[in-house]
Design goal:
This protein is α/β, with parallel strands linked by helices. It is about 45% helix and about 15% strand. A hairpin with an 8-residue loop joins strand 6 and strand 7.
């Protein structure tokens, strides 16, 4: 089985914030780490890259009188360092849309779609102030169907209806706020209508696409898919390959979606196995997982599969599109201009990255918009990590060190009590339950199984009280601690996708090395035998004592310092 994992490509015109991170990048990383333990490292590929073409960057480059690539080179390297070095995102390949392999692949792929491409004159919004044609997403106005005043030119986030800029009431340019004019221009259109029935059938028959994805995608299909322009009049982008399309570029949304394939091709070319990429895109033994925000659902659940179908090749369609709802910050939307939120280069200076990874998965907005508050973030660290998991690990390991000189006692199966067999069963089932939820893209729900096992472990210790048993029946106390220390191994493996360094620390305390060699399907087995030596016991987690005033003061200082070192495009 081959597992393809992708996170939506972040646009390089700003530093991602915590909502962006959990919506795609961190979620995909947690799943990829789990998948490597479950399916084997060689069978999992995790890719993404910087989306760097399009209007906002072209405008910024004009303002600064520089080539757009000068700006995106800096921004790409800055983001890449944040993802790979700071946040420990385990991409096999984090690339960019300026990659020559990507640009060549996109142009060649587009030519395969020519059967479904037609040329039409279209009226495109044009900003006379900024002197550019505006992509659909750079026009906002009031939705004609539900009255939502912040609808985009391609879709209304409130009612989910498919829109065009011309349908908006009181349309405005998102760059300057002025009303655009509509100019006629010739464009190349991909005829989505040819795939209306096929897309609908695929969505309805899927047993793995989440309900929120199905709902949004089917609303597009039931409106009736219409041809969508795949060319733009922007200069900054991939030149359209069609005859007569000189001066046109490929719309960034079409080309960025194809980046999942080009990033795969690039990865295998870089390691000298050029044909291996096909194993992750063709065949019956491939499962593909896409981690995105809910605003990207139509592109991944309608346009991407339609393009793959239209290519005439047997590309594997998405297995799971895990689309999060929105993460709010203290009840408000993230806003750079109003300084509402925390950005991913600021966060590491406030809390340890490992804590952030756990907090964000625990707050992952899987069912509805979720509110990040500092009060809840600190509760997660101090209660869930420190009290539930860290305290349990410390209790078990300290007792083995104290009562058995650091050697795991032998288990005497003939002396097991009902409470023992019950907890053994819970240890075996915990990774299975977590796996079932992860396979559906439900990472927050899956993380509940980690806490449940730790809490069950603490309850088990309280009921069996080995500190009392040791006085009269050392063998029975040994049974309890043998079972408990095996549960810690299970916990370390389950915790690894979320907190790789902390999981490795716990795993090492247990007397093991290299947690990445573990097999997920064996995580629930009692493999630690008698006479196994544990290592020195140390504190796994620490409580965080911060108040909101201190956080806001520190954040203001961090922000001030970062403004001096962020690349020009990201300030």
């Amino acid at each position: 089985m081959k597992i393809f994992v992708a996170s939506a490509w972040p646009y390089v015109n700003s530093v991602p914030h915590l909502g962006n991170l959990i919506g795609s990048i961190l979620s995909a990383d947690v799943f990829a780490r789990y998948a490597r333990l479950r399916y084997g490292k060689e069978n999992v590929l995790f890719v993404s890259g910087s989306d760097e073409h399009g209007t906002p960057i072209e405008v910024e480059a004009k303002k600064r009188n520089v080539n757009p690539k000068e700006l995106t080179d800096q921004a790409h390297e800055y983001d890449k360092k944040l993802f790979l070095d700071i946040w420990e995102i385990s991409y096999n390949n984090y690339t960019r849309t300026e990659s020559e392999i990507h640009k060549t692949f996109v142009r060649n792929f587009m030519l395969k779609l020519e059967k479904y491409i037609k040329i039409e004159e279209d009226e495109i919004p044009y900003c006379e102030y900024d002197k550019i044609y505006l992509p659909d997403r750079f026009v906002k106005g009031t939705c004609p169907y539900c009255g939502f005043e912040d609808a985009r030119g391609d879709q209304c986030d409130n009612c989910g209806r498919l829109l065009t800029p011309k349908l908006l009431i009181n349309p405005k340019c998102v760059l300057c706020g002025r009303t655009p004019v509509f100019k006629k221009t010739k464009h190349w259109f991909f005829d989505l209508s040819a795939f209306n029935d096929k897309i609908e059938e695929w969505i309805k028959n899927s047993q793995t696409l989440p309900e929120n994805v199905k709902s949004v995608a089917l609303s597009w299909v039931r409106e009736g898919l219409k041809p969508r322009s795949i060319t733009r009049d922007n200069a900054w982008g991939i030149p359209a390959p069609f005859e007569g399309a000189e001066g046109k570029t490929i719309y960034v949304w079409f080309e960025a979606l194809l980046g999942y394939i080009s990033a795969t091709i690039e990865y295998f070319k870089n390691i000298g196995k050029e044909e291996e990429w096909k194993k992750f895109w063709f065949g019956n033994d491939v499962k593909s997982y896409y981690f995105i925000g809910k605003d990207n659902i139509p592109f991944h659940a309608v346009i991407l599969p339609a393009m793959l179908m239209a290519s005439g090749e047997n590309y594997v369609l998405p297995t799971v599109i895990a689309a999060t709802e929105y993460l709010l910050y203290e009840g408000q939307k993230f806003s750079k201009s109003r300084k509402i939120g925390v950005w991913i280069d600021e966060a590491p200076q406030l809390l340890d990255i490992e804590y952030w990874r756990f907090i964000l998965i625990r707050l992952r907005p899987e069912e509805k918009d979720t509110n990040f508050t500092w009060r809840e973030a600190l509760r997660i660290v101090n209660t869930e990590l420190n009290d539930d998991i860290g305290n349990y690990a410390n209790r078990v390991l300290s007792m083995i060190s104290r009562y058995f000189n650091g050697e795991v006692p032998q288990i005497k199966y003939e002396k097991l009590k009902d409470e023992d067999t019950k907890f053994i069963s819970e240890i075996k089932e915990a990774p299975k339950k977590m796996s079932e939820l992860f396979e559906l893209g439900k990472l927050k729900a899956g993380s509940e199984e980690i806490l449940k096992l730790a809490r069950n472990g603490n309850s088990y210790l309280n009921i069996r009280a080995p500190w009392n048993l040791i006085k009269n029946d050392k063998e029975e106390a040994g049974n309890v601690l043998n079972i408990a220390v095996n549960s810690l191994r299970t916990l370390s493996i389950m915790l690894y996708p979320l907190m790789p360094k902390s999981a490795e620390k716990l795993y090492n305390m247990l007397g093991f090395k290299d947690i990445e060699r573990e097999k997920w399907d064996l995580a629930g087995e009692l493999v630690i035998k008698s006479s196994h030596k544990i290592n020195e016991v140390s504190v796994l987690f620490k409580k965080v004592e911060l108040n909101e005033n201190d956080i806001n003061k520190k954040l203001a200082e961090i922000r001030k310092n970062l403004e001096k070192i962020r690349p020009t495009l990201l300030r």
